[in-house]
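Q:
Got a chain?
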Amino acid sequence: MGRVPKLRLPASYAAMARRSVRVTLAASAGFYLFLYGFGSSVAATYALFAAVSMAGLSHIPGTGRQRARVLVPVVPACWVLVTIGTYLSVRTWSAAVGMLVIGFVLAFIAVGGPRPAGAAPGLQLMYILPSFPPYDPGSLGERLTGATVGLVLLILAERFLLPDHPTTFPYRERAARAADCAERFADTLAAPPYALSDATVRTARPVSKDLRSSQVPEADRPAGPSVRDRALAHTGLAARTLLARLAVLPPLPGGPTSPGAGLDVLRAVTDSSRETADRLRGRTTGTAAHAELWRVRQALAAGPPNEAAVPAVLRRHAAALEVADAALAMSTAADIAVRGREAAATAAPGRFWYAQMRAPALWWRRLTGHLGQRSVFFQNAVRISLALAAARAIAGIDTLPHGFWLLLATLSLTRTTARGTRSTVRVALIGTLVGALVAATLLALVGTDIEVYAAVLPPLMLVTFTVGPVKGVGWAQAMFTVVVALVFAQLAPATWQLAEFRLLDVMAGSAIGALFGLFAWPRGAHDELRRAAATLLRHAAETAVDTTAQVAAGGTRVPLLTAPGHRSLQHALIMAESAYAQYQSEPKGLGVPSGRYDWQATLMAGHHTLWGADRMLVPPEPVVVPPLERGPTEAVTRIGDRVAAGMLLVSARMDPTGDTPDTTVPLRARTFDDFSAEPPGAPWQYFAAVSWLDALVTDLERITGELGERKDAQHTGKSPGP
């Protein structure tokens, strides 16, 4: 006889099924305990909706254990929200004002990263639930007890029941693998034939790609404001930069014993990269390799020996200094990511400004940085808070039955774009209509037989929270409509009209969400991303001009200051990164096609501008740099102006002002050959600046797609154009 084949769910359904089991057991256990065990419908309601809101409506990323850790501090937050909602529900105006303020605050905490953002909708529901009549402060104890029990049961279920197995490597391991790759690159470059093969360089591409935020699951993405999260993100960026710099290191200007070979730098980078990988994996706490790399970097910063001052050697020296800087940044950031503020003593105050700051100061900096209309987090918070406040006012003025559902629909169906809200509402209304018909039929047939509702509710919840997230909002609304009908049918006698109220509330909530989605930043992050990227490139252009001017002028350099425009460029970079993060989650096809620009390359150009300026103008120790002679000054000024002009041109093409020029101007004209200029008397600082500016032009070509066109033209032997 043949063996019976095993039934295996697709991976998406299997993950949702495990999560559905947890929320179903937590919600139904608390609900039945209080309703049938203690006869408290109030506590039963709060126990069920506390579990459902934080596991069904919220989308906290990660495994069950990771979500359990996030939910622990949620419990006291829910106490505060339930208490405020209970006392503000006495009047419609106070409840609506509370909804406006609390709705904004809870939505705005998304600036703290994916986990606070995922928990925000559930926290909103914990204020919405008690903000409706009956005004009964005497039941506050039951409300808090029910919510606490529901959340505790959910935490226990997430922590111990059907544990999830991580499907991807954590970010620390991704960074460690990049450090391993950097170690191999540096080791290969330090030994004959002192070069990397094309096959070897290609091995770094997937490693570097894995460090991009778009490739990292939200649960593992270091996007929070804490010291460790910032340092881990810094580690990934430094690792990507190090791999890129090693891949384009100029060839030896002579034999391995020539003055400009820099093999000691590569050996120090090899050891430091190995030490960094071990530190990220928790295998070592030593800093000997880091200290040696620091010593080598100090020697490099003093410049090459006079007898080695020929252009080929100076170019190699400038490139080696970039490699040492990137490796040093990676090692320092990794140490901070592992040890936190304990490692702050070895961090440069400019590049690692966050290392010595405490958590409240870092949170305050993150919050105030986004407290403006150009931040997508601010836009989202304003949009949802206004919609919820309007829905609460309408529900109170019209005394809608089950007005709670009105706000729930507004909260769950409002999207960050008018187009997204419109498409979501259409599908949700169809699903709600189907669910209402099923619920009405069930209520009409069963009547007041509560035992039937009690028996059907758990398996229906299990299916709802398994199928709904996978099949989409239409299925979710249809099935959840039946679930809430069965819940309220057990709390009080219900007729088929309960389904009618549900449908009407969803329709009203959808209309409110669509209205505010239409008038409050209706295009979401699409235009904001273009505007933020354009602003980023404008600040980068200013930094390029200012930096080349200071390189030419020379002067005293001190480590406690930052490069010109550092704070402005850094803030513009943060705004662009947050807009890009939201843009990735929104429907495409609005206005200019999303494929027109490489947004990742735009962000990398901002980082490269920031880091290069700091590398040339912020030394590890005070130093006096002599001014450049006339020839090098004129050359580096022309190059800096050319790069800044290219940034401004690309910025103008990105900016969604309605007056965007469409003319494509080649960024690397054939008639402009100053990148290869070697003016007499040019010191290594000149070649360092030229190398940095050349890399920025490559970033711009990558943004507009010209880099790929140029490489294709070189491959076919055709001219890439003027």
